[in-house]
Amino acid sequence: MAIVREFAFQGAQMLLVLLLSPLLTGFVRKMKARLQRRQGPPLLQPYRDLLRLLRKDVVLAESASWLFRVIPYVVFAATWVAASLVPTFRSGLYFSWTADLIAIIALLGSARFFQALAGLDVGTSFGGIGASREVMIASLAEPAMLMIMFTLALVAGSTQLSTMAAYMLSSEVGLRVSLGLALIAIIMVAIAENARIPVDNPATHLELTMVHEAMVLEYSGRHLALIDLAAELKLLLYLSLIACLFLPWGLVTAEYGPQALAVAVGAYVAKLVGLSFLLAVFETAIAKMRVFRVPEFMGAALMLGLLATLLLFVSGSL
Amino acid sequence: MHGLTFDVAHLLAGSLVLVSFMLLYQSRLYALLNIFALHALVLAASVGWQASAQDAPHLYVTAAIALIFKAIIIPVALHRIIVKLGIHRQIENVVGVGLTMLLGIGLVALSMVVMLRVTAGADALAREDLAFALSVVLLGLLMMVTRRNAVSQVIGFMSLENGLVLAATGARGMPLVVEISVAFSVLIAFIVIGIFLFRIRERFDTVDLQALDNFRGERR
Amino acid sequence: MSFDALSAILLIPAGAAVLLAMLPGYRLTAQLNVLASLLAFLASVSLFFVTPVSGPYLLVDDLNKVFIVLNTFVGFTTAMFSASYIGHEIETGKLTPRFVRFYHAMYQVLMFGMNLSLVANNIGLMWVAIELATLSTVLMVGIYRTHEALEAAWKYFILASVGIGLALFGTILVYMAAQPVVGEGLNAMVWTVLMTKAQHFDPALLDVAFVFLLLGYGTKVGLAPLHAWLPDAHAEGPTPISAVLSGLLLNVALYALLRFKMLLALNPVAIAPGPLMVTMGLISCLFAAFMLYRRRDIKRLFAYSSIEHMGIIVFAFGMGGPLANFAGLLHMTMHSLTKSAIFFTVGNISQVKGTQKIADMGGLTETHPVLGWGLVLGVVAIAGLPPLGIFMSEFLVVTSTFAREPWLAVLLGLGILVALGGLLLRLNAVAFGEPKGPVGPVHASYVPMFAHLAIVFMAGVYLPPALVTGFENVARLLG
Amino acid sequence: MVVPALYGLAALLALAPIAIALGATRHATNVTYGASLIVTLGLGVIGLMSLLGEPVSAVTLPLGLPWLGAHFRIDALSAFFLVVVNLGGAAASLYALGYGRHEEAPGRVLPFYPAYIAAMNLVVLSNDAFSFLVAWEFMSLTSWALVIANHKERENLRAGFVYLVMASLGTLALLLAFGLLAGANGNYVFEAIRASHPAAWLVAVVLILAFIGAGSKAGVVPLHGWLPLAHPAAPSHVSALMSGVMTKVAIYGFIRIVFDLLGPPDWWWSMVVLAIGGVTAAMGVLYALMQNDIKRVLAYSTIENIGIVFAALGLALAFKAEGMMVPAALALTAALLHVFNHSLFKSLLFFGAGAVLHATGERDMDKLGGLIHRMPQTAFVFLAGSVAISALPPLNGFVSEWLTFQAILLSPHLSSWGLKFMVPAVGALLALSAALAAACFVRAFGISFLGRARSPAANKAHETDGFSRAAMFVLAALCLIAGVVPGVFIDALAPVTHALAGASMPHQTGVQWLSIVPIAQSRSSYNGLLVFVFMAVSGGLAAFAIHRLASDRLRRAPAWDCGFPDPSPATQYTASSFAQPIRRVYGTLVFRAREHGEMPPPGSLAPARLTVEVRDPIWDTLYAPLAGFVAFASDRLNILQFLTIRRYLSLVFAALVLLLLVLAIWQ
Question: What would the DSSP string read from start to end of D107-174?
Fold first, then answer.
């Protein structure tokens, strides 16, 4: 009986993230539009786009290989699995121990790996630009993310997200410099990973500045739909990651009642709203930077992460 | 009596060293040969005296060998050769005479220091002999080093051999084996040198070793 | 019986020399030469089974037994090689039959000289024998009568005779040291007697004596800076003679040095000869290793490698101790086998290519596979790579030294490494790459070369216990 | 167990003369590789059996040093490496059954190939210093012969030269190390060495010497100079052996000496290993990103992985030095597992490169492209290898990397502050190198297999033969298995860590759903199987749903490319242009990379040119000066060959006078 309930929760979470992610993107777009004094697309526009794309034919470049057609599914699958392993409203899900934080980051890495390959497959110049820049950014973002993970793992003594969240909830975690640094760093990484301003502009098609868009330039129809959905899932993933690590309040752990659950879901949605609002504000306030300024940006994130790790020892908290 | 023998031996050995110095000093080939003959003569004398002193008759043989071969045959032969090669007026010296002399004196001093200190056990005669012999050997070597002409190198080598003979005779009661071998090796040495000089004559128009040194296998 | 075995080793070459000097005709003399060498070898082998009693002039003990057998064996194989080699030299007209007759006679004289110096029980006699051997090689080095050959022979002669002189002086000094203790006369020059009384000799005198002997015989061992004659003599003489020079004559001179070292080792007060030998060995090894890099003549190349290995051997004996001495003996044996094998190969190569210039050779493994891979094998062996014998001895030398004198071991190891680099560069040029030069057939026989290499390989993998015990006894003797 | 293993080795060694006898016939190829395949399989089985609970067995043969004999022994460690070596050997032999037919001069490969495998096995089996070094150097020798198999190219000869000299340097270092351990009277047997407890300084010296010796063979920066030259020069199946297996044998040497023979060293020596390991990993992959020759890329990525392994080993040393045995076991397991994994996917990748090389005759990635259309199966396995080596789940590369990170996360428990600070820094380096490795293999696979053909050769490529494909697929399958059920492999390593660190990781195969748990469920866990299943299921579900409910129609059309469709393949990104952003970010710092672009003046028809200059800092600062010194010294000394006889006499004279003076003064 318990098993079934646990499975149900796991399934619920998977569906939740899947269904919530377009809405989140829509919400961010809306916010930005409002901040720019525009009407903006309706909240549900992303769902419409996805459905429209799914129904359209796929127009495939002649030089595209079988790999090109497989990749959207791989990317989507990897991202979805990763997203559904991050605690959203309830930690300690049945399969939560399948992959710890490192593995989740690595899963996103696989998704990126294949996406970059997709960029190269058709053999166009823009695909190349996108792929090469993507891996360059990733080569800095991933270590930064791992450094952040080190900091948190060393604080919480675990790389298990549920355990970490539980630790963060517990009283013994005080306000710490390292955690502050880690927070800043993870935000920077999240911005880069989700191709947001100032690193990349999801809305642009100005050829020389785009990174993520350039990679998926050749995709159309259902393939494009999956890629977009994966991107939206990724955004959701990062936000809920930040939420569960730095604002874990309201997260229900093992024991729960219906109202607790309701509270948890509410808290979760509230966190998402808040974070995406901040994101929108940030994106409106700042301008996109030149591609070769990005390394400095990410390098800063990496340095912050490393600093956070080292400061842990100085603060002698271990 | 013993004093006398000692003094004479000393005198002869010392004069051998002196003659070595003359060899070093003399830069004209022709004269050089004569001096070498003198060198051999003195050697023969000192060996003879040793023979009588140690009353070892077999040493007379050595003396005779020295006298006949080194004092007469070799100089004569070499005279022939240099005349035939037309180098009997040749004057050659690598290092300045003064410097050579200084080096020679230094060497003599060295050999004295080494030998006299070492052979404290042996009797005075042997000590003197060995010390002088060593200096003669070193001087001969010095000569070989400072001369460029094949003939004078050969002469230097021979004077070195003389020094060895002196040493050998100085060693009391050393079996005849050694003398014979010395003479024998010198003989072979002489023959071989002769052959070589002739070959050299065939090939080069000079016995100056520079001519030989040009052929050094791998030229840069 | 014993008398026969011992004297056979001496009489066979002597008789053969006389015979060969008189007999005309190349084929007959060549075969006779081989036959005589073979007989000498067999006679020497018999020494292992019956050890003759050593008299006042001749002596056979564990130490020289090894040397004698090695000597006669390499002498035999070299005779085989030279039989075919010299034949080709006559065909190409580089040698006239008259010279070949002379050559064969001299070859046996050389063997006689070396055997005599090995079995001599009398320091004077040994000296005479070594000089005899030296002078006979001088004549053979000059046999081609080209400018280079004459210059090489002349250089060899002058330096060798100076060496002769110094060695004699040293010998006299040893006599002087012995005479007060042993008494005048023959006894004061007999090894067996000297060995028993050595501890009473005047140490200071022995020291001076050893300096002279080290320089005198060291000249013939080819230690730097006394080495100058060696490369040219190897390069300009007939190849069989190069093989004998590197493989045997150096060993004989070394044998003499070892004898005197034992003498000094017995004397408590005298300076240990070790440091002197170690220094000279190290200098020779390093110096020769660097010299390998600029060689253009293939025979000179391997001559320098001989200097390097002599350096290693002298180093090992200088270090002393059972392990190092064992290593030294092993290395000496392996080196003479390998190096002579290499010279056989090189002889064939230079006959095929008609030159000794490395620049005119190339791609040998392509054009002459057997010859080329033979050379590769030889160089691999001489560079001290396993599984061939020299690796074992170098392993023992370096490890046993490192525990005692780390820096010396490091220096030696670096020397070996540098030498490896030098040899490898030349090997690449000769054996691999695009083929160069004539590709005619090979005339001389492969048998001796591969016989040697096979033995070296065997030794690298498995040493027969008999040999080991023999070496260990000698190592103990050497202290 | 050791005796049958030795029979196997004898068989391999006997194969060499047979190969010579058979000559350069196709027959010879089949016999040699077929026989090596069988024997290596047998040896691998022996290794496996002795790893899974056969007792330690030893034997002594009357070979080698007479008073010592040749000692051979199989314990857990050597058993594990026996498996690694022979798995690689078997794969290579299978591959070569097909690939070897294309060899133009088989006579230069066949005799050395079995001997080479035998040598590597010998190293693992030998139980005394002498046999160990003989086998070690014999391994270098045979592989040298294989490197210069194609001797017509000057480059290969140079590579062989550098290789053999460096290898001998390493052997020299090991020789000295053993010299120290064995002592003056030479107890070369490992038991004796193990029994002797050397002093602390001696331990340190031996550790450094062993690091130099094994590191130079494994390709640790800065001793790596030979590796990118030699590995690509050999025939591809041999390259696979050299990169995938021989470097592992080197690591075996290091583990054997440092963990087994040597007592526990002071903790700061582990910092040396850690630091150099981390630097090696980062440098190696950066080098790899600068290369355009695909085999060179693979060779440099080997250096990176060796760096990871050494970092893990350094960690294990640190834990061991502080007596924390369980973490030490964890780090050691990570290292060994990575050794195993790397031997799998590196061999696989080299096989792939070999197939490409044979199909196109090209190693330069800028002349390849679009091969996925012409050699789909090779492309597939190469992709699998690339994913594995980029440490991406669910394949095996990720598991060992993950374990390493888990070990790093235990560093706070170390007492010494130096380590506390250094380990996270090394962790950052490893993370960086992991990310860069992904970039490197996106590049390697993407440029050579994807896109459009950049040269006619690439256009006319064809799928490789059956044997080669079989070998590659086997390895790919193993990569997947080791990725999804790593617990089995970790448990197999338990006896090794028990022998070396006196502890082992908790039993894995008992854990529910076959996930792996280094310390505790609550702390960290990873389940490759479920990740794989989830991905497969969700991907499959998505595909199924979309094709069912939405459209599954598809139209072919020219590439859109933002409205600039370009007919010429030359407009694609090339290997060098792909690396450009990374070169800008790291290269300027590390390689003093410079880009000179010259633009033709307006109106001129001359093409614009971009030249990129990348310098190798280590070669410039270490190798070049050494070579310069040797050249200088030999030039100076060479003057002594050209003196006159008089001068030579003066040398003798000087020596004599000098010695006499010494005597005169000394007395």
Answer: GGTTTHHHHHHHHHHHHHHB-BHHHHHHHHHHHHHHHHHHHTTSTTSHHHHHHHHHHHHHHHHHHHHH
- The pTM assigned to this predicted structure is 0.93
State which residue of chain A sits closest to D371, comparing Cα positions.
Answer: A65
Domain ranges in chain D are 618-666
What is the model's pLDDT at position A179? 87
Q: What stretches in chain B show pLDDT beneath 50?
A: 1, 199, 201-217, 219-220
A65 touches chain D (CB under 8 A): yes
ipTM over 0.85: yes
**What SS3 state is found at D60?**
strand
Across the interface, whether the CB atoms of C165 and B137 are under 8 A apart is answered yes
The enclosing H or E element of B1 equals none
Any residues with CB less than 8 A from the CB of A12 and at least 6 apart, and which? Answer: none
CB C393 within 8 A of CB C338: no
Name the residue facing C413 among D129, D172, D184 (closest C-beta).
D172
D371-420 pLDDT tens trace: 999 999 999 999 999 999 999 988 999 999 999 999 999 888 888 888 88
Subunit contact D652:C215, Cβ cutoff 8 A = yes
Q: Are chains A and B touching, using the cut-off of 8 Å on CB pairs and a minimum of 3 such pairs?
A: no
Q: Which residues pair with C327 in a beta bridge?
A: none
What single-letter DSSP state applies at residue D557?
A: E
Alpha-carbon distance of D139 to D41, in angstroms, equals: 20
Alpha carbon distance D209, D202 (integer Å): 10
Kindly state whether B143 is in contact with chain D, defined as any CB-CB distance less than 8 angstroms.
no
The answer to whether D660 contacts B114, with C-beta atoms less than 8 Å apart, is yes
Q: Å from D61 to nearest chain A CA?
A: 50
Nearest CA in chain D to A304: D428
Contacts of B114 (CB under 8 A, 6+ apart): B134, C208, D660, D663, D664
Domain boundaries, chain B: 2-213
Q: Which partners does chain A have (≥3 C-beta pairs < 8 Å)?
A: D
pLDDT digits (tens, 9 = 90+) for B96-122: 778 888 899 999 999 888 887 766 666
CA D520 to centroid of chain Cα atoms:
32
Whether D535 sits inside 8 A of A81 (CB atoms) is: yes
Give the chain D residue nearest A123 (alpha carbons). D451
At C55-75, the pLDDT tens digits run: 788 888 888 888 999 999 999
DSSP D620: I
Suggest the residue from D378, D560, D580 to mutate for an interface test with chain A (most A CBs closer than 10 A).
Answer: D560
Higher-confidence residue of D58 and B54: namely D58
